[in-house]
Structures are given as C-alpha cells and as structure tokens.
Predict the 3D structure of the following.
Amino acid sequence: MYELEKIVPAISYELKISYPATIPTDFTIEVRNTNGSQSRKLLNIEKTKFTVGVGKAYQAVVTAHRTGVSIDPEALKKPCVFNIVLSTLHYGLPWEVWKLVFLVLLSIIASVFWFTPWLLSYIERSTAHLKKEHQQTHDD
C-alpha cells in the first residue's frame, strides 16, 4: 500500500506502473481514499486515472501476479521491481503528451513555412537547369 502525497483536490491524475518487460507480470492497481470507499479496480493494466475528492487522502494498492514464461526461470524467483508514477492530467492527458503535441505542431509549421518553399525552389531550379540542358543538346 502506497500513500499518494501532495495531491490536490478536484484535479485528475494518472497512476502508472513501470516494470521490466523481461519479467512477465500482471499488476492490479486499486486507488482507495481513506474514508474506506474504493475507486475502480483494474486488472491486467499498468495505469489508471482518477480524480481527487475534496478533503480526502488516497492510497494505491498494487499487487503483482507472475504470468507467462520467462526466458530465465531464475528471474521468476526474484521479486519484480517496479516504479509508481503519479502524473497530473491536463484536459485528460498527461503533460508529456502535450509537450509531444506541441513539438509535432511546431515541426509541421516549420516544414510548411520553411522546408516546403525551399523544396519547391530547388525543384524549379533543377527543372529549369534540365530544360536548358535539353535545349542545348537539341540545338546542336
């Protein structure tokens, strides 16, 4: 059981589990508030989203169940090491997604305003040069 600290009321969060893919494991994530009521329980998933209520503290209960077959049978005897990541959601998406969207839009704008005109200019120069060479060979 993990205490979720520094959470703000009325804000949505995403709780993710990060673990090595070489150890086949299914995780169960359960987010509970301290009043005893329980939020959704999700099976076979590495993340869950929840919104914090006013004046409540929250805990995350994480259980791991070994599944599948590992390349190294000795790895199944070792505990599965994992990290818990709690991210704030902005308009339903983590901040990392918004940074990626901004970068993609910036790349598209840069390609439309700078790369495309350069490419068209290059094509026009190449076409003009080829036409000139073609005319010179037919004039001879």
User: Anything to note?
Assistant: Residues 33 and 58 are 4 Å apart (CA to CA). Strands lie at 2-4, 12-18, 25-33, 38-43, 47-51, 58-66, 83-90, 93-94. Residues 95-139 form the longest helix (45 residues).
